[in-house]
């Protein structure tokens, strides 16, 4: 165990449940856009929404997944040789196909272990709370200097509520600043129980119209808006995030409705308008899934700032880009 005892309030053996694991997609260290200070992001796997523009599609499905990155392949064929179910195939010596029905994940993963070119990658590892915290605590010095900490993201963290609770509870025992990024599609009793251990909330509002929300994400926004209202009265610092998606939620009407809705929050720090980008598009192909927004052009800077100015008329702080 690598945690420093000066941060423990009681017996180290009682700080975590050694058998409890969560499905973690990735870590991002030295983040400065997902809460105050320098932070480490923990990306959990699983999400009740299926947003067409998702920049992290590898976090949607709640199981480990193979991601194929053909342009990294050097044609050595070691992954083909290692695969016991023979579910991988090459085209012109480049690994470019996987029969996912035959894949033996999570029990196997031999293809990824022999691929030093990172052409075969696995999204999703089952880690204990201790293993997650061993990564997070590597940068404790930076958190202490900048007022940073750990932000739990995804996917949707509340898709794994038991592990999430243990994660944030342990982080607070270790005296870390805790934040969460959530879409809010969760039972409020679960949300509220986790909220007790959080210092900061980043809350996504995709669309104010329920039917449009359903069309874009696969889920209506009734629970999300109800939870947002409760969160707005909770006293916890909250930033609302609006991912600005062309021809979906970028109308002046929706921006006004969003700003008016959150202007009553007593604990609102800001509305972050997050312009659409296409950086996550290659990941959809690596999962052999269709990116439905292919060809959609991001907004120009002038239009984004026009919409931000509309939101500011409701007396709230507005940032562009988070």
What would you say this structure looks like, in words?
- With 322 residues, the protein is α/β, with parallel strands linked by helices.
- It has 2 domains: 253 residues, Aldolase class I (TIM Barrel, Alpha-Beta Barrel), CATH 3.20.20; 59 residues, Alpha-Beta Plaits (2-Layer Sandwich), CATH 3.30.70.
- Helix content is 29%, strand content 22%.
- The chain has 11 helices and 13 strands.
- The strands form 3 sheets. The protein has a 9-stranded mixed beta sheet with strand order 7-1-2-8-9-10-11-12-13.
- Helix 9 runs parallel beside helix 11.
- The radius of gyration is 21 Å and the shape is globular.
- The two termini are 35 Å apart.
- The N terminus is likely disordered.
Question: Can I get a quick summary?
Answer:
By secondary structure, this protein is of the alpha/beta class. The chain is 29% helix and 22% strand.
The CATH superfamily name of the largest domain is Aldolase class I
Task: Write down the overall geometry.
Answer: globular
Structural class: alpha/beta
**Which stretches of 5+ consecutive residues score pLDDT under 50?**
1-14
How many domains in all? 2
- Helical residues, percent: 25-40%
Biggest sheet descriptor:
9 strands, mixed
* Gyration radius, rounded: 21 Å
The fold-level CATH name of the largest domain is TIM Barrel
**CATH C-level class of the largest domain:** Alpha Beta
Supply the number of helical segments: 11
Our measurement of the CA-to-CA distance between the termini, rounded to an integer number of angstroms, reads: 35 Å
Going across the biggest sheet, name each strand in turn.
7-1-2-8-9-10-11-12-13
CATH architecture type of the largest domain: Alpha-Beta Barrel
Strand content: 15-25%
Mean pLDDT: 93
List SSEs in N-to-C order: EEEHEEHEEHHEHEHEHHEHEHHE
Instruction: State the total count of DSSP E strands.
Output: 13
